[in-house]
Amino acid sequence: MSVFDADSPPILQVNDFAGQYTWYDDGWLGRLELAEDTGEAQLRGSYFSYRFQTEHVVTADFGGEWPHEIRVRIHDFNGLDAQEFTGYLSPARRNAIAGVTYWRQERYAFFAKKSAPRLLPAFRRGEAEPGDFAGTFAARCDGGPATVVLEHLDGRRLSGTWAQPGGGSHDVTGEVDADDPLLVRLAIDAPGGPATFTGSLFSRPKNAVAGWIDTPRTRIGCSLVRHS
C-alpha cells in the first residue's frame, strides 16, 4: 500500500499510543514512555533526555481534529514549565509519531519510534540554507519504505521524486519558506489527488526533516531521514 492510499484511522484507544519510544527532538535523542493515566490526562509517563541527562514527567492527550493526533507535554524541560509536542501517530503500524514543537515561538521538528535508539550522522553545521534540503532521504511513514530525492534548483526552489517499490515514482516540487529557513512545503504529484508534505529540517545536524503529509483523505505524520 502507498502512503497516499491511507485513510484516517477509526477512533483510537489509549494502548495505541502507549509504549516506549526513541525520541528525536531536532536531532536531540531521548526516551519517552507513555501509559494510560487515570487522572486528568489520557496518558502519563516519563521522558529521559540524553542531552541533559535528566528525567521529566510527561502528560499527553490524543484526538481532536484528527483521531491520531497526540499532544505530548514534557514538564519542567528545556527552560520551560512544559514544552508541548504535537504529532501524528502512524495510522497503520501505530509505532511512530512525527510532528512539530515550539520553543519560545520558534518552530522545530521531531519524530519518535517504538524502537531502539539509532544515531543519525550529522550533515553540516551552521545556519540552514535551501541547499540543505537537497539529497536522498528515506521516508518513514505508513505505506512501506520510500525514497525521496530532492535537488536544489535556485533560490528557495526544490524539485525531485518520491519513489516507492511497487508504487511508482511521483514528481515533487517545493519551496523553502521565505521567513523560516527550516520550513519546507513539498507538492507531490500523487495518484488519487495532490499531496503536500509540510516539514521542518533538524536545525543543527540537518540530517532529517519531520512533519506531516496532507492528502485528500487524511493527514499522516512523516519523517525524511537523510542518506546522502
What distinguishing features does this structure have?
16 strands, mainly beta, globular, 2% helix, 228 residues
What is the topological layout?
Layout: H1 14-17, E1 19-25, E2 28-36, E3 43-49, E4 54-62, E5 69-77, E6 80-89, E7 96-103, E8 106-113, E9 135-140, E10 146-152, E11 157-164, E12 168-176, E13 183-188, E14 195-201, E15 208-214, E16 219-226
Antiparallel strand pairs: 1-2, 1-8, 2-3, 3-4, 4-5, 5-6, 6-7, 7-8, 9-10, 9-16, 10-11, 11-12, 12-13, 13-14, 14-15, 15-16
Could you please describe the fold and organization of this structure?
The chain has 228 residues and is mostly beta strands. It has one helix and 16 strands. The strands form two sheets. An eight-stranded antiparallel β-barrel has the order 1-2-3-4-5-6-7-8. An eight-stranded antiparallel β-barrel has the order 9-10-11-12-13-14-15-16. β11 and β12 form a beta hairpin. The longest helix is centred in the first third of the chain and has 4 residues.
Brief digest:
Helix content is 2%, strand content 55%.
Instruction: Indicate the mean pLDDT.
Output: 93
Q: Find the count of extended strands (DSSP E, 2+ residues).
A: 16
Share of helical residues: under 10%
Low-confidence stretches: none
Structural class: mainly beta
Counting H and I runs of at least 4 residues, what is the number of helices? 1
Distance between the termini: 26 Å
**Coarse morphology:** globular
